[in-house]
Amino acid sequence: MEVSPSERGPQRENPNRCVMMDSGSYGSLNYSFLYLTFLLALPYFIHYHFLPKLFIGGETVRVKKTSDLPLRFRSDGTFKILQVADMHYGSGIITSCRDVMESEFKYCSDLNTTRFLKRMIQAESPDFIAFTGDNIFGSSTNDAAESMFKAFGPAMESGLPWAAVLGNHDQESTMNREELMSFISLMDYSVSQVNPSTDDSTNPTQGGMITNIDGFGNYHLRVFGAPGSTLANSSIMNLFFLDSGDRTVYQGIRTYGWIKDSQLNWLRNVSQECQGQKQNPLHSDGFPPLAPPALVFFHIPIKEVRQLFNKGIVGQFQEGVACSIANSGVLETFLSMRDVKAVFMGHDHKNDFCGNLDGVWFCYGGGFGYHAYGSAGWPRRARIILAELQKGETSWMGVEKIKTWKRLDDEKLSKIDEQILWGLSS
């Protein structure tokens, strides 16, 4: 007679009986094993197969480092700019110096330029560095990118915001002018731009950048008021950067480049926008709103600078002004804008003077780089620009004064030719 399971009562499990698993259980184990293997293998795969592809020239690709922005005056009411003109950087230690004393020549190289830049940053503690062209000497390097990394290295190491324009020699290596400015704009702490952004104009654009403008490296930077002041959120000084070109042919004659009409039209438009910015009348501190002063930076001087020979200049006029035979009306544009107080340029290394043309100061930086031509026994030099704010009853106000001086690359970093370029009382 067959007994049903319920009638048999509780049964004891045979410890020696094999337990059969269904296919679903096997599948779960297989997936678990594969997942564990994947997790263990992932670090190995990333390290040996993926990371090597993130190296370019031995450097790991990483996000660009940026300074605290926007540019603004210090809490003590000052804003200091270091102008570096004509580094002419080549390939580093293998690039020899030009026009130095015979006793200095044997051990002199691009590294002297690097050392000078580091000394200037340490001595002056600038808020901003402006490189005014011929940053590298293209014919002395077969790798423009490597040369720029070395040339701008001290600026990037300092963590200070910096900007650059091109001269007439930068593009003579492995990059054209557009590629150079694009590369510079992506370097650590650089606030350089390839060309103006749409924020500064309503001109036709492509990808947020103005396209109907000549050259590369035309842009505008605003400097805001001191922290905690009533103008902390207002732009109280403007910095304009312009591409003065390299070499070209004008009316059948080979000449240096110049600033074109399209650039000047953009400049006028931005200047009008800046002068039209509104200040809060409730926080005027008793002072009427003033148009923010503007400073302009480019490489090749304009023709009118020749008129300053034997005039009331501060500094030395030691060589002819090498400029374009074309005249697009740069000075007239600056005068019509009424906010340009001073212009800073390079190109002529043995000139380091400031001279006044109809109320606008034009200042040479003086030759900075050791691979650039100069005069033996005439020290390389750099220019400092210092803007100071007006003190209101309760707060720092707008710019009151703009001063400048130079430092020589001698034992003491001698300070020379200090002068006031502009002031509210002038």
TrEMBL record:
Pfam families: Metallophos (PF00149). It comes from the Eukaryota. Its cofactor is Zn(2+). InterPro entries: Calcineurin-like_PHP, Metallo-depent_PP-like, PAP14/16/28/29. This is Putative inactive purple acid phosphatase 28 isoform X1. Coiled coil: none annotated. Belongs to the metallophosphoesterase superfamily. Purple acid phosphatase family. Keywords: Glycoprotein, Iron, Membrane, Metal-binding, Secreted, Signal, Transmembrane, Transmembrane helix, Zinc. The keyword Disulfide bond does not apply. It comes from Senna tora.
